[in-house]
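Incident log, support desk, overnight shift.

02:14 A customer reports that sequence design results differ from what the structure should imply. Their input is reproduced verbatim below. On-call engineer (initials T.W.) acknowledged and began investigating.
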């Protein structure tokens, strides 16, 4: 039996919520003040233990991800939007860098790559195959200097982090003030799919997806940590095969993203 802990809303620091639904014997609630959806009570995890993390990159999966064209297309799409967003390159930190695909592409594009990931197998692959200088662990373990990075990216990381506020403070510290760009992509807890499917939405996974952010709640969390300029990105659908069907799906995705109803949300903050 897992130990449960009750938390206050990480944005408001209050506990004024109502329950939306439950799944896997855990409740997802919404904060009445800031609209953040989160799991409460949740499984008490001081840190993300090894067993849980290693399920992300078992050896056979690592090779499969590395050779999957979708992985490369998705990372290319992420990098190209970041580069549209800001002209100059520099030091880029990818938090939750996994097997290093994104950093490998970024380095090719002229960035100086840095990465951290709690997965030992992911990091080993990034070091050995991509020859990246990345570290196993959390951002705190790396002890980066203050105002060091031009860009910091977190793709599908934030929804897993038990202690959100200490992480965001640390990211604010190591990112260059004014000129630095923070990029966060998470599942959209108020997207169309989430609204229609509720507890059945595949991203609802209360044991380790602790928050269901939205275009309303995520900017509030970032402003709390001193990010003044927060804008929403337009993540595009990618596919290894292009044709009429894909073109239609891509157009549908773009329309949903415009109204903040896409499956994921991506924000740029500085
Ligand atoms: Zn709140």
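02:41 Re-run completed on a clean worker. Output:
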């Amino acid at each position: 039996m897992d130990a449960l802990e009750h938390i206050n809303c990480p944005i408001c620091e209050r506990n004024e919520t109502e329950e939306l639904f439950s799944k896997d014997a855990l409740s997802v609630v919404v904060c009445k003040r800031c609209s953040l959806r989160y799991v409460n009570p949740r499984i008490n995890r001081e840190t993300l233990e090894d067993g849980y993390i290693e399920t992300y990159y078992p050896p056979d999966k690592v090779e499969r991800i590395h050779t999957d064209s979708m992985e490369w297309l998705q990372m290319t799409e992420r990098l190209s939007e970041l580069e549209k967003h800001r002209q100059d390159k520099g030091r880029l930190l990818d938090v939750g860098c996994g097997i290093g695909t994104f950093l490998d592409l970024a380095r090719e594009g002229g960035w100086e790559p840095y990465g951290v990931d709690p997965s030992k197998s992911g990091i080993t692959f990034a070091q050995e195959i991509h020859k990246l200088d990345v570290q196993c662990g959390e951002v705190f373990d790396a002890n980066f200097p203050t105002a060091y990075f031009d860009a910091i990216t977190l793709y599908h990381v934030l929804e897993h982090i038990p202690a959100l506020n200490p992480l965001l403070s640390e990211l604010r510290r190591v990112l260059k003030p004014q000129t630095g760009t923070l990029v966060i992509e998470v599942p959209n807890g108020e997207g169309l799919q989430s609204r229609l499917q509720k507890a059945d939405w595949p991203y609802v996974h209360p044991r380790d997806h602790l928050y269901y952010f939205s275009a309303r709640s995520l900017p509030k969390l970032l402003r709390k940590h001193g990010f003044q300029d927060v804008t929403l990105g337009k993540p595009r659908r990618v596919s290894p095969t292009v044709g009429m069907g894909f073109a239609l799906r891509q157009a549908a995705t773009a329309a949903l993203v415009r109204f903040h109803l896409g499956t994921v949300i991506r924000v740029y903050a500085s």
